[in-house]
Amino acid sequence: MGLTPLSGLALVQAVGPTQGGVLSAHGFDSRTPLWYYILAEAGASGGARLGPVGSRMFAETLWNMIRFSPDSIIGADGRVQGGAFTLADLINLSKNGA
How many whole angstroms separate alpha carbon 12 and alpha carbon 23? Predict the structure, then answer.
């Protein structure tokens, strides 16, 4: 992803002394489960939102769900299918119950 992840001491500091001690005692400061890493990264960023890795994974997951859905206006090649599609088109579709 081109991002620098939290690791070792930075990860332990992000979760605080109690959880950091548990991470270190069980080796999870160097091989952290993904779900825990994303929560720790958010905590290190202030806790109000996801950190860079968590945000990127969330955005890419949504993008790929849209891109590969058979009902999506975006094709697998990333282009809008059927020509131009505007916000007005989306609003009209939602009004018509499509």
Answer: 7
Write the CB contacts of 82 (distance below 8 Å, at least 6 apart in sequence): 73
Q: Are 40 and 11 in contact (CB under 8 A)?
A: yes
**Closest residue by Cα to residue 6 from 60, 36, 25, 21:** 36
pTM tops 0.90, yes or no: no
47: which 2 tokens? 């806790």
Q: How high is the pLDDT of residue 78?
A: 63
Which pLDDT band, with edges at 50, 70 and 90, does 67 fall under? confident
**Among 78, 57, 55, 56, which Cα is nearest to 66's?**
78
